[in-house]
Design a protein that fits this description.
single chain, BirA Bifunctional Protein, domain 2, Rossmann fold, 2 domains
Length: 454
C-alpha cells in the first residue's frame, strides 16, 4: 500500500537524504529545496527514464538545453510579461500574503481567520534581472519561468540543423523560476523547480489526433516506467481554456491527501510559433497574437511536397520532475507490519529508479579479509555502470538492511565468514526479504538481471 500520510514521506526525505529545505542554516528561503545524495540519484533516474522514452526510443524528437537567462522580448511576445500574474490578497491583521485562488475561504485569512483583507491585486510571477554593466538596475532580462518558450524560439535552429518532416518534436529538461506569492505543499509550489517538456509540432488539422495519441503515451509512461497503478491516475480536463488553446487535460495522481496534477497535455494551436515569428502577415495564423516587429527569424515550416509554408500547431506535454519524484516516493512508501510488534518502512521503487542499485555489506567491519572481499565485489559491480553501488561498513547488519529498505535499494549482498571458506555470499531482496546464497563471481550477472531492466 502507498503512503497514507504525506508527512511520513516528507520526514523520510529529510532523514534519509532525499530533500532538504533550501538555505536551512540561515532560516531557509520559502519555495526552495536542496536535493541530497539519494534525491539527486532518484531525480536523475526519473529524468533518464523520461529522456529515454521521449528521445532515444523515437526518431521524431530532438533534445535541447536552452539558457535560463533570457531576453526580455521573448516574454513580451509570449504574453507572459503582461499577463503572467496571480491575484494577491494580504491579511491586514497578521500580514500574511496569499494567492487568492488557493485560499481555503476567499473571505478569510488562512492563518488567523480574519476577514480584514486587502482587495486582490495582480502579483507578477516572473523574476526580472538587471544584466550587464550598463543596465543601471533596470530589468532587461528574465530568468525563464518555463522551458517551452525557449523551445519555440529554437524551432528553426533545430529544424535547420537536423531536418525533419512534420510531425516532429523538441524535448527539454531544465530549471525554471517563478516568484510565487506563497509557496506551499512541500515541492508542489516552488520558486525554483525543474520541468520536463515536449513541444510536438504538427500540421494544422492533425492536432486532435495527436493530442489523443500523446495523452495515451504519457499515461503509459506513468504506469509502465514509474510503476504507478492505473487506478491511482486520472485525466482531468481543464474547465476553462486559455484563449489560444484547443484542448488541455491534466494527469492527476492520488496523493495521500487527494488527487493533484502531475503532468499537463495541451493542444496550443499556432499561438506559440505565431507569436515569435518574423513576418507574421505572410502566414495564416489562426490564434490571436501580438504584432511582432522584433523577431529576426521566420518560425515556419515548408511542406516538401506542396511547397506551402505555414506555422505549425503545437501539442505540449509538461511535467515537473520534483513533483514527479514526490509522487513516485508516495507510491513506493510502504510501512510493513512484520509481526511480533515489529515493522519496517520500505521504498518499493522500481529497481531501475532506485537511488542505490545494490549495497555490499561485510558482516564484520574489523575483519580485514571480509572488508577486502566486499571491496572487490563493489569494484566488480561498479563495472556494470548501472548506477550507484554502496559499500556499507557499519558492522550492524540489521540496521544496514533497514536503512537500505528506506532508501529503496533493491538488493543487499552480505560478505561473511563463509565467503572466506567457499566464495559464496548472501543476496537479500528488498521487497520480500528473501535471501539466496550464491557464488560471489555470479553476483554481477544476478544484480544486472534484477535491476537494469526492471
Amino acid at each position: 500500500m502507498p503512503a497514507k500520510n504525506v508527512n511520513d514521506v516528507i520526514s523520510l526525505c529529510k532523514r534519509r537524504g532525499f530533500i532538504f529545505p533550501g538555505s536551512e542554516i540561515y532560516g531557509g528561503l520559502g519555495g526552495t529545496y536542496d536535493y541530497g545524495p539519494y534525491g539527486v540519484e532518484l531525480m536523475k533516474n526519473i529524468r533518464e527514464s523520461w529522456w529515454n522514452t521521449m528521445v532515444y526510443q523515437r526518431d521524431d524528437i530532438e533534445g535541447l538545453d536552452a539558457a535560463q537567462l533570457t531576453n526580455r522580448l521573448m516574454w513580451k511576445y509570449s504574453g507572459h510579461e503582461a499577463s503572467f500574474s496571480d491575484l494577491l490578497v494580504e491579511c491586514k491583521k497578521c500580514k500574511l500574503r496569499m494567492r487568492q485562488d488557493k485560499m481555503a475561504d476567499q473571505t478569510k485569512c488562512d492563518t488567523c481567520g480574519s476577514a480584514d483583507l486587502t482587495e486582490p491585486r495582480a502579483f507578477h510571477l516572473m523574476m526580472g534581472l538587471s544584466v550587464g554593466a550598463t543596465s543601471d538596475g533596470e530589468i532587461n532580462a528574465y530568468l525563464r519561468n518555463e522551458t517551452a518558450t525557449t523551445t519555440y524560439t529554437n524551432f528553426k535552429n533545430i529544424l535547420d540543423a537536423v531536418p525533419h518532416k512534420l510531425p516532429f518534436g523538441i524535448a527539454q529538461i531544465g530549471r525554471v523560476f517563478r516568484n510565487e506569492i506563497s509557496p506551499r505543499g512541500f515541492v508542489f509550489r516552488m520558486r525554483e523547480f525543474e520541468q520536463a517538456e515536449l513541444q510536438y509540432f504538427v500540421k494544422p488539422g492533425e492536432e486532435e489526433e495527436q493530442f489523443q495519441e500523446w495523452k495515451a503515451a504519457r499515461m503509459r509512461w506513468w504506469i509502465d516506467e514509474l510503476g504507478i497503478p492505473a487506478e491511482r491516475l486520472r485525466f482531468l480536463p481543464h474547465e476553462k481554456l486559455v484563449f489560444y488553446a484547443a484542448a488541455a487535460e491534466d494527469i492527476e495522481y492520488e496523493f495521500p491527501d487527494g488527487f493533484d496534477e502531475v503532468e499537463g497535455i495541451h493542444s496550443r494551436t499556432d499561438y506559440d510559433l505565431g507569436s515569435h515569428t518574423k513576418s507574421q502577415s505572410e502566414f495564416d495564423i489562426k490564434a490571436k497574437v501580438m504584432d511582432n516587429k522584433d523577431s529576426t527569424m521566420k518560425l515556419s515550416y515548408s511542406d516538401p511536397q506542396t511547397g506551402e509554408s505555414f506555422i505549425p500547431f503545437v501539442i505540449e506535454t509538461a511535467l515537473g520532475t520534483n513533483r514527479t519524484m514526490f509522487a513516485v516516493m508516495c507510491e513506493a512508501y510502504t510501512d510493513e507490519d512484520l509481526g511480533d510488534e515489529k515493522s519496517r518502512v520500505v521504498l518499493k521503487l522500481k529497481p531501475r529508479l532506485a537511488p542505490v542499485k545494490a549495497a555490499v555489506i561485510p558482516l564484520a567491519r574489523n575483519v580485514p579479509e571480509l572488508v577486502g572481499r566486499a571491496g572487490d565485489l563493489v569494484a566488480d559491480l561498479r563495472k556494470l555502470h548501472i548506477g550507484r553501488i554502496e559499500m556499507e561498513n557499519s558492522g550492524n547488519i540489521g540496521k544496514n538492511y533497514r536503512r537500505h529498505d528506506e532508501i529503496g535499494t533493491p538488493v543487499c549482498i552480505t560478505v561473511d565468514h563463509q565467503t572466506l571458506e567457499d566464495g559464496t555470499v548472501t543476496l537479500r531482496h528488498r521487497d520480500t526479504m528473501a535471501q539466496e546464497r550464491m557464488a560471489m563471481k555470479d553476483v554481477p550477472a544476478r544484480v544486472l538481471e534484477l535491476t537494469a531492466n526492471s
